[in-house]
Write a structure and sequence with these properties.
The protein has 20 helices and 5 strands. The chain is mainly alpha-helical and 587 residues long.
Length: 587
């Protein structure tokens, strides 16, 4: 049974600085890395790591408790040790989280970015067109050529260095603007000229798109419909290929752990911590890739609608110009403007598809850990369990039904119910087995949804085995409390499960309460009845120093005088009449 993943909620925690504690620790870490380690760490990565490490209960850091130097020294020492390891999987996981959040597929952001880039490149030419005022008709041809280049670059109508492309665009311009119109356009004020230039661009773009479809001309113009369709197919194929590769890595990594943990004999996974974190890294990449697929599927609906409207608009223009030699501009120009808008929207879709491909490629690079891939291949054949195969893990994702024993144990607690899985039902912890994550230091094993879900306090939890469900029913609060501690110790899971806000409040408040209780215990243990006898004259008489100065500026003035005296020199001279005299000169 396949779990339908909800869309990711992207939170940009790293751009916030809520407390002075983060700033102090970040400044000291930056100083240490530059002076002792001779490298400078990215600010976003540094702040992200610190915010996650502070959640670890072993540091006991709280917002309202005093600044404990020993605790922060321990945190900084652990931090430096983590970032000093070039093969740290934990850092690789965090880098992937930061990259995906920074490059999340936001359509409006991508389009705005491309438009800003294009406007910046075309600004000199556009400014020249706006500032130029024609003095004679002989200058019109050169001015129209500049207009043609601007339109070609703005709407992507071909290579602006291709003479044939420029000529076809000039012909389209001249068909809508006479020489007098061009002269009048150049004399407009800046505001009116900018507005008119936008309309000219749209009409010429619509003309050229229609001419290409009619087969009259179209040098350098791409088949926008074919390009967008092929781009979508290629992007989806690449995403599916990446998912297959990631799934293969996960299966190999799971095989290195041998037989999955059982309830009779739970093996220690501490020695396999690198393998567990490698699984987390690839599970995270898999999750991001599925999110990209969901975005692409939503994008496909928009693409189909645009292509349908584009073709419909072309057909309308064909009907208007059919068997006609002259057409009123009031009826044809608005159609060209609408066609140009659709052309531009289709080009925007190519930018979005390109961005999805770029993010896909970068995620696959960040998911590669060469130093551990070798170890996985070396131990894979020896430790694979006959009871664990591809089909068991695969059934969670592709809907393949696997026979499982039915649940027969019922809970005595009325708050706990076992319910079947339904589509669009949110499963806590991303539908991973709660027991496995809780008892194996964050090992991510997908839950078997054919066993049903445990509903507890209006939340649903999934498990990989029937025994795990029985164990949770007996100790639900213990299991949930334990999984929070596991996530706090393995901070790469905090954002994976989107639990930063809730954990920050829980951990910080818990640390502050523990500190207050310890202070109260110390005060209670120090209270006792005592007696004090003071002397009649506890302070002995002393002689006052009349030359004492308490003002630091007086001390500095005296110091400057003494320094000047050190630079003074004494000179003497003698005359011939045997009379002597001495002089002293201050230099």
């Amino acid at each position: 049974m396949e779990y339908v993943r909800p869309k990711l909620k992207i939170n940009r925690y790293k751009h916030e600085m809520p407390h002075i504690l983060f700033r102090l620790i970040t400044q000291e870490i930056d100083h240490i890395t530059q002076t002792k380690l001779n490298f400078s760490l990215d600010y976003d990565l540094s702040l992200w790591l610190i915010r996650l490490m502070i959640l670890n209960p072993k540091y006991g850091i709280g917002y309202e408790r005093p600044f404990d130097r020993t605790v922060t020294d321990a945190l900084i020492e652990d931090y430096v040790q983590i970032v000093s390891d070039p093969d740290s999987i934990f850092v690789a996981i965090i880098k992937m989280q930061i990259y995906y959040i920074d490059h999340y597929i936001d359509k409006s952001r991508i389009i705005t970015k491309h438009q800003a880039t294009m406007n910046a490149k075309m600004e000199p030419l556009t400014r020249l067109i706006i500032n130029t005022r024609l003095k004679s008709k002989s200058e019109c041809d050169e001015y129209v050529k500049k207009l043609a280049v601007d339109i070609i670059a703005h709407y992507g109508l071909g290579n602006p260095e291709n003479g044939q492309v420029i000529q076809e665009t000039q012909n389209a311009l001249k068909s809508m603007m006479s020489t007098n119109d061009v002269m009048g356009f150049s004399t407009l004020c800046e505001k009116d000229k900018i507005e008119s230039l936008s309309g000219i661009r749209e009409i010429v773009c619509g003309m050229r798109a229609f001419n290409r479809d009619a087969g009259h001309c179209g040098e350098g113009l791409i088949d926008i419909e074919k390009t967008v369709r092929n781009g979508y197919k290629t992007t989806k194929l690449q995403l599916n290929t990446s998912l297959k590769e990631i799934s293969s890595r996960i299966e190999t990594l799971m095989a290195t752990l041998g037989k999955l943990p059982s309830f009779d004999m739970l093996p220690s996974l501490i020695e396999n911590n690198n393998v567990i974190k490698s699984i987390t890294l690839n599970r995270q990449c898999e999750r991001f890739l599925y999110d990209l697929l969901n975005i692409l599927d939503d994008h496909h609906i928009h693409i189909d609608r645009l292509l349908k409207n584009f073709r419909s608009q072309l057909n309308k223009i064909h009907e208007i110009v059919k068997f006609r030699t002259a057409i009123p501009i009031t009826s044809i120009f608005p159609k060209f403007i609408e066609l140009a808008a659709l052309w531009e929207h289709l080009q925007h879709q190519t930018y979005i598809l390109s961005e999805i491909n770029t993010v896909n490629g970068q995620l696959m690079l960040l998911a590669q850990i060469p130093s551990y891939d070798v170890n996985v291949r070396d131990h894979h054949v020896l430790t694979v369990s006959p009871n664990y195969g591809v089909n068991e893990d695969k059934s969670i994702y592709d809907g393949t039904k696997v026979d499982r024993p039915k649940i027969i144990n019922a809970s005595k607690n009325r708050q706990i119910k076992i319910v079947p899985y339904e589509v669009n039902l949110k499963v806590e912890y991303e539908a991973f087995c709660v027991w496995t994550v809780s008892n194996n230091e964050g090992l991510l094993l997908p839950a078997d949804l054919t066993n049903g879900l445990v509903q507890y306090e209006n939340k649903h939890y999934g498990f990989s085995t029937v025994e795990a469900i029985d164990w949770f029913i007996q100790n639900p609060d213990t299991c949930l409390a334990n999984i929070i501690m596991v996530i706090c110790r393995n901070q790469e899971l905090v954002h994976f499960f989107d639990m930063y806000d809730s954990l920050e409040q829980i951990v910080m408040k818990s640390n502050e309460n523990a500190y207050k209780y310890s202070q109260n215990d110390d005060e209670c243990s120090q209270r006792c009845s005592i007696g004090i006898q003071t002397d009649v004259h506890p302070i002995r008489p002393y002689k006052m120093d009349k030359h004492h100065k308490w003002n630091i500026w007086d001390m500095r003035r005296d110091a400057i005088k003494l320094a000047n005296i050190r630079k003074c020199q004494t000179k003497s001279t003698q005359t011939c009449c045997q009379s002597t005299f001495g002089t002293q000169t201050n230099l």
